[in-house]
Design goal:
alpha+beta; PH-domain like; six-stranded antiparallel beta sheet; two-stranded antiparallel ribbon; 2 helices
Length: 151
């Protein structure tokens, strides 16, 4: 678990998490509230965006957050660590998209299923609801030469 994954700025100046090796971005959802209680009972609460990838779920806080800045949880046993309690609130809907994708990816990780990279790279379109603000990635963000950290 990490409260500071590497971030980079895209061409619009938005901070994005830097992908790990063999990691693909699946979706992004804005207007999320994240709250985490650490083992020493410190509470972190912020608003921001959540990214769902093939390896983890990442919360990136909005600008102006003084404590930490972001949170990620790998798709491994003991989600959030045995001593961490956390919750995610969808302020603008979205559980009907994000949760099924998250649960499907968790199941694939448990079965240790490999992602067919050729299939992923050949996808050129996605079917989305125009009323749903979830971003579905059909092309992966371009990794910069150097990543930046937010404070």
């Amino acid at each position: 678990m990490s409260f500071k994954p590497e971030l980079f700025e895209d061409e619009e100046g938005k901070k994005l998490p830097l992908a790990l090796e063999n990691e693909l971005f699946i979706l992004q959802r804005a207007k999320i509230t994240f709250q985490c209680k650490t083992p020493d009972h410190a509470v972190f609460k912020s608003k921001g965006r959540i990214y769902c990838t093939t390896q983890r779920i990442i919360f990136v806080a909005e600008k102006g957050v003084t404590q930490h800045g972001c949170f990620f949880e790998a798709f491994n046993e003991d989600i959030g660590g045995g001593n961490f309690s956390w919750k995610v609130t969808f302020a603008n809907g979205g559980t009907g998209i994000v949760l099924p994708v998250f649960l499907r990816l968790m199941e694939k990780r448990k079965k240790k299923e490999e992602i067919d990279m050729n299939f992923v790279q050949n996808q050129k379109k996605a079917f989305v609801d125009p009323n749903d603000p979830t971003v579905i990635y059909i092309a992966q963000p371009i990794k910069p030469v150097s990543a930046v950290q937010t404070t």
